[in-house]
Amino acid sequence: MTQSANPLKQYFRQPAIYLRLPTGGKYWPPGSIELTHNGEFPVYPMTAIDEITYRTPDALFNGQAVVTVIQSCIPNIKDAWNAPTADINSMLVAIRLASYGHELEINSTCPGCGTAEDYAIDLRNVLDQLKLPDFESTMHHGDLEIAFAPISYQNQNLSSQSQFEEQRRIQSITESALPEEEKIKQLNDAMRRITELTIDALKWSIAGIRTPGAIVSETEHIQEFLLNCDRKLFTRIRDHVINLRQVSELKPLEIVCDNCKHEYRQTVTLDMTSFFEPAS
Ligand SMILES: [Zn+2]
User: Fold this and answer.
1) Is 1 exposed, middle or buried (CB count within 10 Å of its CB: 0-12, 13-18, 19+)?
2) From the CA of 121, how far away is ligand 1's center (Å)?
3) DSSP state of 272
4) What tens digit of pLDDT does each residue of 139-163 get?
5) Is 155:198 a contact under the CB 8 Å cutoff?
6) How far is CA 2 from CA 5, 11, 71, 157, 160, in A?
């Protein structure tokens, strides 16, 4: 028996918008994205299942929810774990836009007087502002030349998850009834692990290092170099990577409080609290 085509198919969700990725598909490993001839990707609104997936707190924490929803709403994305992080915000903004329209309301409390107010953001402008960081420029240090690349969503997720766990551990050590000496020892260990995690995230952000005699792209060699280079160069590399990352982050909202005229900046995130329309 052959399955007949479902007459309801034409009523399935349709692409709501077309998205251009900041990377244009560059830096995605082969097979993880299906490129289109004009560089635009159809973005579908979320299904009921996508919404439930995205609302599950644990799934959100481990990144699986983000990956599942991106792959469902942007079918050209075959493996979102391999997405360069520079594209993640664009894809999430586009999915929010396709699902609920272009207006996003952010609630903000003035640090000056405590007045809470809703502010509307146009997600179309947010999308336009998200640019690809300059991964073409290299950093020179003596006769070394360091080249950078975006870190994958998977590696970033691993890194921030471990950072979060270490922070939590520090919290519990601080609050514990351990003898002072033991506390200091455990805190030092936790701090060292956080530094190691920073180095992990950095090594994934370095595409390669050129010396007069060789081009080094092996992650283990780069990691060893980061562990053994001098503090000043390490800080330069770290700051450079932080600057690159900021380009692909959502710009903070510049707010002037209506009540007390205090000027401040409100960070904009697409986390659980702001991603969905309030349930009606
Ligand atoms: Zn105020």
Assistant:
1) exposed
2) 19
3) H
4) 999 999 999 999 999 998 888 888 8
5) no
6) 9, 22, 29, 44, 49
- For the segment 57-79, the average pLDDT, to the nearest whole number, is 86
The rounded Å distance from CA 247 to ligand 1 centre is 29
How confident is the model over 179-219, as pLDDT tens digits? 999 999 999 999 888 888 888 889 999 999 999 999 999 99
Structure tokens at 159: 């890194």
**C-alpha of residue 130 to centroid of ligand 1, in Å:** 29
Distance 133 CA to ligand 1 centre (A): 34
Mean pLDDT of the chain: 90
Q: Ligand 1 centre and the CA of 119: distance in Å?
A: 14
**What is the distance in A from the centroid of ligand 1 to the CA of 265?**
12
CA of 275 to the centre of ligand 1 (A): 25
258 C-alpha to center of ligand 1: Å?
Answer: 7
CA distance linking residue 58 with residue 2, whole number of Å: 41
CA separation (Å) from 259 to 28, 109, 252? Answer: 47, 11, 20
> What is the distance in A from the centroid of ligand 1 to the CA of 117?
10
**Ligand 1: centre distance to CA 128 (Å):** 30
Contact predicate 41/18, CB 8 Å: yes
Question: pLDDT value at position 162?
Answer: 87
Is the pLDDT reported for residue 255 higher than 90?
A: yes
C-alpha of residue 170 to centroid of ligand 1, in Å? 34
Name the band, by pLDDT with cuts 50, 70 and 90, for residue 28: very high
Predicted local confidence at residue 247, as pLDDT:
85
